[in-house]
Write the structure tokens for this entry.
Amino acid sequence: MSQNNLLFSPTTIGQLALQNRITMAPMTRSRAIGNVPNDTMRDYYQQRNGAGLLITEGTSPSADGLGYARIPGIFTQEQADAWGKIAKAVQDGGSKLVIQLMHTGRIGHGLNLPEGSELIAPSAIAAAGQMWTDQQGMQDHPVPKAMDKVDLERVKIDYVHASKLAIAAGLDGVELHAANGYLLGQFLNPKSNVRDDEYGGSAENRRRYVLEVLDAVVAEIGAGRVGVRISPFNPFNDLAANYEGEETEYLDLVQELAKRDIAYLHLITTPGAVPDSTVQAIREAFPGALMLAGDFNRERAEAVLNSELADVVAFGRPFIGNPDLPQRLLENIELNAFNPDALYTPGPQGYSDYPTHAEIAAA
């Protein structure tokens, strides 16, 4: 395989044999009416099955993790069956489908949650900013309930249950979202986690819940089907970034993840946000499959693969307007632009209606 085509070579990460090293990154798209995946979503994922791996949008393992409007869940059989139909459509095209388990924690609003649910988080600290609700438009983030021991155990069980449902429905694995300021990431960060029990205070305590959830999921479905996503130096969703000791804390976390022989580590490395030295240190600390994400194009992706800094590369926004992105990258075909006004609107417009290059040429 030419060094300029390594992106299109097959590989294996954990138990997942991939047709190429291109991953579609998880992206919230808010099309799940009633929090249940639907045929429009199936079309969207099926259209993009030229990638080696597709990671779904953030999908909540719990009713109280549905902080955004119209995001999907996987805590009922109905939701799992719907995801199973999507998985088959993806796998029929040669790709693998991993579901990203994302509990939104304090990022949300009660109007977006099912009746009887409430926002929960490591600590009772509201996130700065606002959240869209279909009923009342933009609303301030409320103060969440600080999770007690019952909540901690219940949500951990929810992650395990969601993972079991996913594998039983035919998905290829799960990714635990411990990045971008959602629940697991909230536990890691000293701004959102001010607990004084065994889950707060020291860096070791703050990563405890992430590792407990991971161990419980691995015990259920096996380490070879589990990935973890992290985002050091990321202030998104009102987190502290570049705080003293942050790099050391993440390297210690990565060493713990490495001990568990998980399928892959998914690292967000947006240029200018994460120092190259940190990425190199994480690569050295994690001998397993490393996936990098963050504004990649083909040239930069080939460079990190050739340098063995990454094993697979995740593309996000380019996949929105280009369902045939792998072909376009391979043949250096110009990319479609996408409509930013339709990123989170319900329905197929600006979602599953983008044409492939072949369809444009045939028109």
Remarks:
- The mean pLDDT is 97.
- The CA atoms of residues 324 and 356 lie 6 Å apart.
